[in-house]
Amino acid sequence: MPLIDGGLHTEVCPAGCTSDHSSDARGAFLEDLVHLLGGEASMTVGVEDGVEGMVQLPVLRAQIQVEPYSPDARTRVPHVVLEPSAGEVVSGLGPVELAAVIARVRAHCDRLDEVLAQLVAARTELLPSCDASEPGAWLSDSK
Question: pTM, whole model, 2 decimals?
Answer without folding.
Answer: 0.74
